[in-house]
Amino acid sequence: MRNETSVTEFILTGFSDKPELRLVSFLVFLFIYLFSLLGNMCIIAAVTRDGRLHTPMYFFLQNLSFLDMCYTSVTIPKALANSLVGSNVISFWECVAQLFLFVMLGASECFLLTSMAYDRCLAIHRPLLYSVIMSRKLCAELVAMAWLSGALYSVFYTANTFSLPFCGPNVVDHFFCESSPLMKLSCSDFRIHEEVGFAVGGCIVLSALGLTIASYVVVISTIARIHSAGGRGKAFSTCSSHLTIVALFYVTGSIAYLRPTSPHSPIQGRLLSVFYSILTPSLNPLVYCLRNKDMQVALKKLLAPSH
User: Fold this and answer.
1) Helix, strand or coil for residue 221?
2) What is the CATH number of domain 9-161+169-303?
3) Long-range contacts for 47-56 (Cβ within 8 Å, ≥24 apart)?
4) Which of the 8 DSSP states describes residue 237?
5) 295: how many CB neighbours lie within 10 A of its CB?
6) Residue 11 is inside which H or E element, if any?
7) Of all helices (H) and strands (E), which one includes residue 38?
8) CB 134 within 8 A of CB 119
C-alpha cells in the first residue's frame, strides 16, 4: 500500500440504503444464504456416502460445492451482521482480506469449471481411456491448480486495487468490499488500474471460457456421431448440469466484471453482484438435483435413509 493511504476503515452501504428495506433484505438474503449452505452441504454429504458417486465427475462437484459455500460465506455473513446491528463499518485490512478471498474463490471456480469441462470431454470422447487418464492423482492436481491459480490471480487483483491511495471518502457503495466502488474512493486517478484489471481479468476469463467451449465442441461433435437417439440423450445428460452452471457463471460474472466502472450506477453494480456472488452459487445445487438422476437417488438415501 502507498504511504498516502490514511483510511483505516470503510463504511459499507449494505444491501439497501433505504432503512425501511433493511429488515426485508436481511430476511431474504438470510434465507438464500441458508438455502445455499444446506444445498451444497447435502451434495458433499451425498457424494461422500454413496459409493456409486465416487467418480471424477462427482469429486469435482464436491469441490465446486465446497467452493460455493466459501464463496457466499466471504460476503453474506458480514453483510447480514451489518444489516442486523446497523453498523456497516469494516476495517481497512478486513476489506483487503474480503476482496482477496472473494476474487480468489471466484477465479478458482472459473478454473474448476474448466477442469470439469475437460473431464466431461474425456468421458464422452475417450470413454475407453477415461478411467486411465482421469486418475485420482490427476483429479487432485486439477483441483489444486484451480485453487492455486485463483490465489495467484487474486494477489494481482487485490494489489492492483489497494495500491491506490485512499485518503478521503470511505463510504463503499456496496454490500461488500468490491473493487469497482473501492477504486472510486481513491484520491488519485484510478483509470489505469481499472483498465489493467479489466485487461488481465478479461484475458483469464476468455482463456478459461475458450478451453471450456473447445471441450464442448468436441463433446457435441462426438454426441452427433452417436447413431441412436437414446445414446445421444444419455451422453448429453451427463454434461447438461455442468453446461447449465457454466452458462450461469459466465453470463452473470462477465456482465458484472468485464465492464468499465464509470458508466454504471452503484445500484446496477449491487444488483449484478447479487446475481453472481449470491444467486448463482445458490442455484448450483438445485441445478444438479433437478437434472441429475444419480444425485437425486443419493440425496433421497441421505435425507430419507431406509431402516
Assistant:
1) helix
2) 1.20.1070.10
3) 47/298, 49/298, 49/301, 49/302, 50/297, 50/298, 50/301, 50/302, 52/294, 52/298, 53/294, 53/295, 53/298, 56/119, 56/123, 56/134, 56/139
4) H
5) 23
6) strand 9-12
7) helix 22-49
8) yes
With residue 9 as reference, give the H or E element that holds it: strand 9-12
**Domain parsing of the chain, residue ranges:** 9-161+169-303
List the pLDDT tens digit at each of the 307 positions of the chain.
444 667 889 998 877 666 667 788 888 889 989 999 999 999 999 999 988 889 999 999 999 999 999 999 999 998 888 877 777 889 999 999 999 999 999 999 999 999 999 999 999 999 899 989 999 999 999 999 999 999 999 999 999 999 999 987 888 888 889 888 899 898 888 889 988 988 898 899 889 999 999 999 999 999 888 888 887 887 788 788 888 888 888 887 777 665 555 455 556 666 777 777 888 888 888 887 777 788 888 888 887 765 5
Please tell me the number of Cα atoms within 13 Å of 301 on its side-chain side.
16
Kindly tell me the burial class for residue 14, based on how many C-beta atoms sit within 10 Å of its own C-beta (0-12, 13-18, 19 or more): buried
Q: 121-152 burial, b for 16+ CB within 10 Å, e for fewer?
A: bbbbeeeeebeeebeeebbeebbeebbebbbe
Element (H, E) at 252: helix 229-257
Tell me whether residue 210 is exposed, middle or buried, using C-beta atoms within 10 angstroms of its C-beta: 0 to 12, 13 to 18, 19 or more. Answer: exposed
Distance of alpha carbon 125 from alpha carbon 123, whole angstroms: 6
- How distant, in Å, are the alpha carbons of 11, 110, 162, 197 from that of 194? 22, 21, 12, 5
Question: Closest by alpha carbon to 215, among 109, 284, 119, 111?
Answer: 119
Alpha-carbon distance 292 to 36, whole Å?
18
Is the backbone of residue 14 left (phi > 0), alpha (psi -120 to 50) or beta?
left
- Supply 241's cell numbers: 448440469
